[in-house]
Amino acid sequence: MINEEKANINIDSDAERVRILSEALPYIQQFAGRTVVVKYGGAAMKDSNLKDTVIRDIVFLACVGVRPIVVHGGGPEINSWLNKLGIEAQFKNGLRVTDAATMDVVEMVLVGRVNKELVALINHAGGQAVGLCGKDANLITARNLGAEDIGFVGEVATVDARLINSLVNSGYIPVISSVAADETGQAYNINADTVAGEIAAALSAEKLILLTDTSGILENYKDPSTLYNKLDIQQARELISRGIVSGGMIPKVGCCVRSLAQGVKAAHIIDGRLPHSLLLEIFTDKGIGSMIVASEFTRQ
Ligand SMILES: Nc1ncnc2c1ncn2[C@@H]1O[C@H](COP(=O)(O)OP(=O)(O)O)[C@@H](O)[C@H]1O
Ligand SMILES: CC(=O)N[C@@H](CCC(=O)OP(=O)(O)O)C(=O)O
């Protein structure tokens, strides 16, 4: 389907190269000055060559006047550090059971290692990234999710977009990790998709783009030919209630739906394993992956 076609783009002539560059112009014009929140994490973050293409795409976006904001996870890297430290990783309904020792590791890995690595890579590629977590200027405050026996897992209580806006207005690329504190200063571990959705909503972003390890939302998630290219909130909710969307895809679709209900124009779930998937989504006619919009009438 679409992804295979895209993966097989055949740039065998100058005319084709010019066509591809020229196709980008209306999208560059449409999205210049607009906010795009990109969630990067999970499996899509494991491969270092792929990481470089994601980083280059983010710098590309900033260079053509789009306002990219990166929210990152790093679940696999947390698992690997927990393993080195002899702490067992446990999940309930896709969320990490986070006791005090695990919370320390989550914070060290996400806010320290993963965040600073992404910042350094963006800056090496010619961007100007600034690394943050929810604690910086109280950009995000957390509250306990309240799920039983899951520890310091939080949800987003408030987002204060002022710091993000002032950084973006000065040409910086904010890179935000999904750790935040409550009003007592207690740190919480928040699912990174959830944080990306809430930040996109607070900024009234043009797009929320979640990079993951499937080609999008699939009717049968083992069969890439069953991709949903476009759906609206109602259809997305139905896919959750029918059990078509399951596991780690539930929080992704859920946060897309919530962000759209709060004014984000379009939410996309795209394949982070595909090189330059961000450019393909934003700057080509066909786009890639699954696009969710508020209602049929606002489909682009
Ligand atoms: N309908 C669906 N379409 C695509 N993937 C699905 C679907 N339902 C469940 N999934 C699962 O959701 C996974 C993505 O969620 P997750 O592993 O949490 O991603 P990430 O690590 O990128 O945050 C896919 O790899 C797939 O196994
Ligand atoms: C509560 C919870 O589960 N938090 C996640 C935060 C990181 C994350 O979301 O990372 P990915 O996007 O790479 O999965 C965790 O501890 O793994």
Automatic annotation (TrEMBL):
Its EC number is 2.7.2.8. GO terms for cellular component: cytoplasm. Keywords: Amino-acid biosynthesis, Arginine biosynthesis, ATP-binding, Cytoplasm, Kinase, Nucleotide-binding, Transferase. The keyword RNA-binding does not apply. The record marks K39, K252 as: Transition state stabilizer. The keyword Amino-acid biosynthesis applies. One of its GO terms (biological process) is L-arginine biosynthetic process via ornithine. Pfam families: AA_kinase (PF00696). Residues 35-271 form the Aspartate/glutamate/uridylate kinase domain. Catalyzes the ATP-dependent phosphorylation of N-acetyl-L-glutamate. PANTHER family: N-ACETYLGLUTAMATE SYNTHASE, N-ACETYLGLUTAMATE SYNTHASE, MITOCHONDRIAL. Belongs to the acetylglutamate kinase family. ArgB subfamily. NCBIfam families: argB (TIGR00761). This is Acetylglutamate kinase. It comes from Aphanothece hegewaldii CCALA 016. The lineage of its organism: Bacteria, Bacillati, Cyanobacteriota, Cyanophyceae, Oscillatoriophycideae.
